[in-house]
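[09:14] KT: can someone run the structure on this one? pasting the chain below
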Amino acid sequence: MLKKATTFLSSELVSVLLTALTGFLIIHHLSKEVYGVYGFMVTAISLVIAFSEIGMNHCFLPLVGYENVNQYKIQQVYIFFKKIRNKLIILSSFLVILPTFWLMYTKDWLNSTYSVAIVLMLIGAVLEVNNQLLRQRATAFHNYKLVSKINLYSSFFRSTFIIFSIYLLPKSFIVISLALSSISGPLIGIWGYKKDTNFHKLSNVISDTLEFKDLNIAFKKLYTPLFLPAFLVVIYGSFSSLAIAWFGDITAVANVNAAGRLGMALILVDKFVGMFVVPKLAQTIDIKVYFNLFKKYLVFFIGIIALIVLSAKLFPELWLLLIGTKYNDLKEILWISFSALVLLNLSGFVFSCMAARGYTSNQLPILIVAIMVQFSAIYFLGMETARSVFLISLMTSSIFAIGQIILFIQKYKTFNL
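[09:31] RB: done, structure tokens below
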């Protein structure tokens, strides 16, 4: 596993660095006003993708099974998820894009350039959903080399496209070109996964003969307790960005999105968790081994995120070099933003590790408490500035992290290990 992890992380590090580099170039090159609108559109499209998933990804590996993983079972689960998510992406597009156009119109942000850009980003979202499913399928096959290679190629192609757009195109075309780049990455990914001979072999054998009745029953049993909490998490995750777009000015929107971009350091950790930790835990038969591995991974994860927050507190100037001097007003509050991000990631990590074994119950109370705190904090602090958004995010992220750790401790005690 160490050799695979090293190869994966090397490839993923390059991918993350390329993505981060182009993201920072965009922030540097665009004015705060343009970046604020662009960042809002990216948030809206991310919400479209999130509504097409609503926690279902956590059911993929448990449905595949813990032992004697069968390639036909993986293909069955892949096709089952593809049918559901392709329907949901169409529904979520209507639910999100129409209000997005309306909000942009009321804020006087809407013009022909942004309208075309949103449509292009929406096409990219549909492609990204299919790319995600193919990536999950390859991960279930433990084909980490293929996943890493495709991620690297996609990042390289998209980054090249963005750099070309920024430095060679007129400024009036940059936003549309950036929207086109959201199509290029998923296209490369889909093309790479479908070139895999294993994909075609299994597609030809199975796709017309699958029976989904038993799988559907198992999916509903696993997903039913997860749906409402996952739905509320999606709402919560996008609420801050959408609320500040509604209540704040375009400068505040740009500040919040730029600070979020600095959280790119967490992506590499997330990818490692998704590629190695979750599948390993999902397929661990011995429950004692599962909990021991979980605890080791948890200590490692906490150590990494603690270093990230400490660096933002002690050396904010170094982080702000990445996004430019026009964001120096974030210097004193950057550590708050980072703390909120890492706590939310910690919550997601613990939840993903438990969901890998199908432990998805009792999530609703955490969501209810977090949402109550969020709305109470909004009432007292408002949502007009980046500082207030970061403080509210820190409060609610803390509740999520503490709640997930409590659920883990409770689950651990039930096994009397």
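[09:33] KT: thanks! The radius of gyration is 21 Å.
[09:34] RB: yep, looked fine to me
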